Every structure is written in structure tokens, then in C-alpha cells.
TrEMBL record:
It is a multi-pass membrane protein. This is ChrA protein. GO terms for molecular function: chromate transmembrane transporter activity. The keyword Glycoprotein does not apply. Belongs to the chromate ion transporter (CHR) (TC 2.A.51) family. InterPro entries: Chr_Tranpt_l_chain, Chromate_transpt.
């Protein structure tokens, strides 16, 4: 068990150091590492986990990582996975809070290269998942319709609505199909423990604002603000921006200029976007404030995945749920494909040079079977060279 926990920590740490591009790109990196390379779970279990993370509030990629760690080595594995994936960006953003006016890293050439890498990684993940999760006309149609709807109607709850509709469609299309013998998602957690996590989630959500009013302590105010933001946001890291802005700027904890500078820096570091809280907490209350804010914003995600995954493992085997899950899994492919276009493609590809670079990296991943970490290194070096040749030295951040 201890060996598995260490393995999970170091694998997730490497992902935390190299997974640029936001939550959807993270899911591509996860799929390549955990499903294709290490085979810790199959495509169906991975898609189920991704679908569950879309239903519940919080950072989807972090919750998927926590879930994989939980399935691999129980609660210690979940903790190890979370710490490894989150630690690099937390450390960088806490440091950036102290150096905000000294360096500008957001225009560096290697950041440009890593944005291009994200395009190739997500495209590879979509191609692989599409072959297994949308192999027939009906599921491919569900994926394409979901892609179209996500691109045309983007709201906080739209993805959840489309997943539900895809589940309904999957039920009616596949309700007469013989149920599959799906393997259990083993978590090592009892239903009582899971229910306790859900109870704690709602208890903290209700009582923290009252405690904040009763006790005038800055750490408690920070914890309440960031816990509420983490508990109420659907749709991933970018959606948490307005929630955090309302919590910290009007109250004077963080200035408006500091807020925007930190958000720009967050786009330039790997790992979950929710670590923006690490920067904000440090600006408001030093290193201790950064650690409190980090713990508070991720705690809801942790409680929700621990509280729902054991029940989800049981529910997904129900003969009524199974055909619905086929539709949901196809919708996940469509959602990832939509996100490949916006925000990943639109924020990374501006010229023919960018597209050519992305196509080359995609070929290295898919046809030359290069490991993702090597493609990331090629992206870093190539991004620096292309920035210098085509866009000028400003992209080096000099």
C-alpha cells in the first residue's frame, strides 16, 4: 500500500509540473498517463469519473485525480494524488505573490509552447476516448450534438444539463441492450464514511458564515470565503473567477490590480486553476493565509468526491442507469471536443505557424508514440525558438 501511495504521489507530482492548459487539458494528460500508459483504469471507468466530476461542484480535474488516487490506494492515495498534483502551482503562486511586481512570466516563449502542447494532448485524448466511448452512430451523434450545444449555449449549468439530456437519450436508445458486466469502482470507503463526508460538506457550508459573524478572525473570514467559492462553483476553474472577485476585492482583502495580475499568472503555471486561491490568500494574509485559502477552496471538492464516488460505483451498475451512462460517456467526448476549440484552440492557435507546431506535436504523440513528458519538453524548447524567430523576443518575458 505504501509503495502505491508513493507511486501515486510522484506520478501526480509530475503531472502537476507539466499539465498546462486548464482543466480540460488536464483530463487529456490524465487519460494519457492513467488510462493509456499505466492502465490503472479503463476508458469507461475514466469517463464515468469525469462525468461524475461534471455533476458536482468544484475543480473537475482535481476531483478526477482524487478519485483515481482513491481507487488506486484508498484514502491515502487520494491525499497523495491531490498533494502531488496541486503542490507545484501552490508553491509557484505563493512565491509569485511576493514577486508580483518584479517579474512578468505570462508572455514567456515556453508558456506559448506549452499552450500548443495542450492542443495536441487534448486532441489525442478526444480521439482515443471517441473510439471507445462513441463507437457507433447513435453515440457519435450524441457526442456531436453535445459539442454543438456546448459551443452555442455556454452557461454555468449548461454542461450539467447536457449530460442529463445525454443520459436520457442513452436510456431510450440502449434500454433494450443487454446490461454490461461493469467492474466495481473500488474505493475502500464505507457508505457511512461517504455519507459523513457529504454531511460535513453541507454543515460547513451552513455554519461557516455564522462562525465568521460571531468571531472576528481573519483566518476564519478567509476560510469561509474560499470554502464557499469552492463549494458553489460548477464548470471548472475559470468559473470561480467572479466568485472569488466578489469575496476578496470589495472586502479589501486584495486590490483589483493585484487580483487581475494574479489571475494572469495563474494561466501561466501548471496544475489546477483553483490554486489562484493560494495567491489571493498570500496577498491577503501571508504564507499562512495562502495555505488556509488553498485548503478551504479544495476541501469541498475533496468531501464531495469522497462522499459521492462510493454511491456512484453502486448506482452505475443499475440496469436502468447503465444505458443512460452510455449516453453520458458519449456526451463527455462532445464536451471535451467543444473545449478543445474553446478555450484551448482559440487561446493557443492564432497563426499558421501555431497550427503547424500543434500538428507536429500531435503527430509525435499519436503516430510516433512519444511519451507526453517528452512532447512537453519539445513544446517548451520549440515554443521558445518559434517565439524568437516569428514573434520577437518579448515572448521570452525579457
Amino acid at each position: 500500500m505504501f509503495k502505491n501511495v508513493l507511486e501515486i504521489f510522484f506520478v501526480s507530482l509530475r503531472l502537476g509540473l507539466t499539465s498546462f492548459g486548464g482543466p480540460v487539458a488536464h483530463l487529456g494528460y490524465f487519460h494519457n498517463e492513467y488510462v493509456k500508459r499505466r492502465k490503472w483504469l479503463d476508458d469507461k471507468a475514466y469517463a464515468d469519473l469525469v462525468a461524475l466530476s461534471q455533476f458536482i461542484p468544484g475543480p473537475a480535474s482535481s476531483q478526477v485525480g482524487i478519485g483515481i488516487g482513491l481507487m488506486r490506494a484508498g484514502l491515502p492515495g487520494a491525499v497523495a494524488s491531490f498533494i502531488g498534483f496541486t503542490l507545484p502551482s501552490v508553491a509557484v503562486l505563493i512565491g509569485f505573490a511576493f514577486m508580483i511586481q518584479t517579474y512578468d512570466l505570462t508572455d514567456a516563449g515556453w508558456i506559448y509552447g506549452l499552450k500548443i502542447v495542450a492542443v495536441a494532448v487534448v486532441a489525442q485524448a478526444i480521439m482515443g476516448m471517441g473510439k471507445k466511448l462513441a463507437p457507433d452512430r447513435e453515440r457519435a451523434s450524441i457526442a456531436i450534438v453535445t459539442l454543438i450545444l456546448v459551443l452555442l449555449w455556454q452557461t454555468v449549468y449548461s454542461q450539467v444539463a447536457f449530460i442529463v439530456l445525454a443520459g436520457v437519450a442513452g436510456y431510450f436508445v440502449y434500454r433494450h441492450q443487454k446490461p454490461e458486466d461493469t467492474p466495481d469502482i473500488l474505493t475502500g470507503l464505507s457508505y457511512r464514511f461517504a455519507a459523513g463526508c457529504l454531511g460535513l460538506f453541507f454543515t460547513l457550508l451552513a455554519l461557516l458564515p455564522l462562525a465568521r459573524q460571531m468571531f472576528e478572525a481573519q483566518w476564519l473570514a478567509l476560510f469561509d470565503s474560499f470554502y464557499r467559492a469552492g463549494a458553489l462553483v460548477f464548470g471548472g476553474g475559470h468559473v470561480v473567477l467572479p466568485l472569488l472577485e466578489r469575496e476578496v476585492v470589495p472586502s479589501g482583502l486584495v486590490g483589483a490590480d493585484e487580483f487581475l495580475a494574479g489571475y494572469g499568472a495563474t494561466q501561466a503555471v501548471p496544475g489546477p486553476l483553483f490554486t489562484f486561491a493560494s495567491y489571493l490568500g498570500t496577498v491577503a494574509g501571508g504564507i499562512s493565509g495562502g495555505l488556509i485559502a488553498t485548503a478551504a477552496i479544495f476541501l469541498p471538492a475533496f468531501l464531495l468526491i469522497l462522499g459521492t464516488l462510493p454511491f456512484w460505483s453502486r448506482i452505475r451498475k443499475h440496469p436502468v442507469i447503465q444505458p443512460a451512462v452510455l449516453g453520458v460517456n458519449a456526451a463527455v467526448v462532445g464536451i471535451l471536443a467543444a473545449a478543445l476549440y474553446n478555450p484551448i484552440f482559440t487561446s493557443a492557435i492564432d497563426t499558421a505557424v501555431d497550427f503547424a507546431f500543434a500538428a507536429g506535436l500531435f503527430g509525435l504523440l499519436v503516430y510516433w508514440k512519444m511519451p507526453a513528458w517528452l512532447v512537453v519538453l519539445i513544446g517548451i524548447v520549440g515554443g521558445a525558438v518559434i517565439s524568437w524567430l516569428f514573434y520577437g523576443q518579448i515572448l521570452f518575458g525579457l
